[in-house]
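Researcher: Good morning. I'm working through a list of sequences from a screen, and I'd like to move beyond sequence-only analysis. For each chain I'm collecting a predicted structure so we can compare shapes side by side. This is the next one on the list. No need for commentary yet; just the structure.
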Amino acid sequence: MRAVIQRVERASVEVDGEVAGAIGPGFCVLVGVTHDDGPDDVRVMASKIGGLRVFADDRGAMNRALTEVGGSLLLVSQFTLYGDVVRGRRPSFTAAADPAAARGMFDELVGALRDEGFVVETGVFGATMKVEIVNDGPVTILLETVGGRIV
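Model: Good morning. Structure tokens for this chain:
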């Protein structure tokens, strides 16, 4: 599982001209799923996202987690995170999980984060979306799990 986590002042996702999800301060997380992802990957990814300490403390150091600042999450499915451009110029997406499996893992991640007490908004799985963010910092973190471990 791959995630691109951006600390945001606000973020929203629109589908067919309608807002599907929107948050104020927090994280916009683009999520990609591959064939071998399972429950351990979901558990580890949810724990890591929820515990990232990238918000400023009283001295301005990145030392506070999402819970400490009352932030929310906007999760957006993003199969293109598994795009491979080693050969040629058109990406191959064979490393991305099939849509049914990917949707299940994505939904599990959303559920795991909600179970941890986070407010989680989402886009619409498989839809063409317009994602708008105001990146705060900018702060962007890349996470990947393999076999239930962060790599």
